[in-house]
Amino acid sequence: MASTSYYSDVKVASSYDLEAARPSAPSKLNAQAHLMYFDPVADKEDDDELALGGYTKDTSFLCSLNSSCLCFNRPCGIFGTFLFSVIVTFVLLFCISSGNSPSISDERSFSDALKLSHCENAPHFFQNVNKVTYPIHLDDARKLSLRMKGDALGSLKIVRDERPTANPYLATIELSVRTNEKSLLDEVVVYDEVKNGSVWWLLTPNILESTDIDGDGLPIEPCMNYDIVLHIPAGLEKLHIVSHTATQVLISESSASTSSHQNILSSLYISIRSASESNLFASSHSTLSATRTAIQMSGGKITGSIALGALLQIDTQQGIVSTDLDVIQLPANVQSTPATLRTVSGPGKTALRVVRPSENSYAPINAEHRAQSELNLDYTKASLDGKVELEGALAGQLNDVSFSSFTDAEAFSNAGISTTGEDRLSVISLDSTRTGTHV
């Protein structure tokens, strides 16, 4: 497909023009459909903490493009719709003006959690040592789950165990926990269990409840940080990470060549459920790839590169998350079935670049992107050939060709877009004036 840019750049003279400018076709963005329902990536028998099956969101206060709104599962009416719009606008303007909304241009160093909580010089360590090592034996499921809960800020670095003599079924976790209040260490809990795979837990205390005082009788402002290094073995097939703490996750660059696409996981699940803007997921597809991948974040930033196998799902609709990501499709000799790419984003910015390296052949892509705010998609290095559908709140233009709906076939034909191949791309946006798609 030739390089083409689509921008739904709409100029409205007054508020009375809004209704006339709406697409004539029924909108796909109704109160239920605009949410992303993820396919299961975790196993069915997992508990709700890890399972993506039946993953839903509260739809009791949502509006669609055709002004069909629900307020607590009942029609809102004009006043309810107006009130909802005012609240959303106020929240977004507050976040922007306060500087708390992370942007794609922000540079945040990995493992800055120590600085964020002023714990870089905290003198007290868990078990009185700088680092504790935990060997985790994989069972027949070849699955490892890490779960972190509590108030401590933390970092998690994921690296491959590339030693020639390494046990392919033995993962290693290195943990460092430090605090400026020694009594808090008594409430740190680390344990592992076997529950449809190996599960490793880190529980940290509620540090806000501490009442310790210093030598001058003044209250101590408590802090706690943890740093984890996870060495994953060659025999690992499934890796699931769930964190309820402010967390920075880094998939570290591998020193070994991965051009042969060895050691691809069957599933990778990263869920950071804290709303903290300090959250970070920095990924390297050359180090860790999976045929089925799901990423969920409620605040912070996603950056780096990630592999697209049979399934890649990215959910950032629950908080302000800035996404700036390269999506690299696995070649057909590694993943021969069609690739499904689904993203759903909330008020944060999203920028995705989908790439098919030219030296390989690829299975078709079936991509769907749904956004509430700014969305920039670049498929120019994917050589798409197939059906493209764009839908937004208002009508727009495509290569200077006007059209009344983002599914107007004649507009695509006039713009010279080929739609005969098997690729599928659907873009649905609540903010068409800040949505750009390049193919």
Structure write-up:
The chain crosses the membrane at residues 77-96. Keywords: Membrane, Transmembrane, Transmembrane helix. The protein has 439 residues and is mostly beta strands. It has a domain at 115-368. 7% of the residues lie in helices and 39% in strands. It contains three helices and 29 strands. It has a 15-stranded mixed β-sheet that branches. Strands 10-11-7-13-15-17-19-21-23-28-25 form an eleven-stranded mixed β-sheet, with no helix packed on it. The longest helix has 22 residues, at 77-98. It is globular and about 75 Å long. Residues 2-108 and 393-407 have low confidence and may be disordered.
**Spans with pLDDT under 50 lasting ≥5 residues?**
2-108, 393-407
Strand content: 35-45%
Shape: globular
Overall strand count:
29
Please give the radius of gyration in angstroms: 24 Å
Structural class: mainly beta
Helix content: under 10%
Alpha carbon gap, first and last residue: 7 Å
On the 0-100 scale, what is the average pLDDT? Answer: 73
The major pleated sheet works out as: 15 strands, mixed
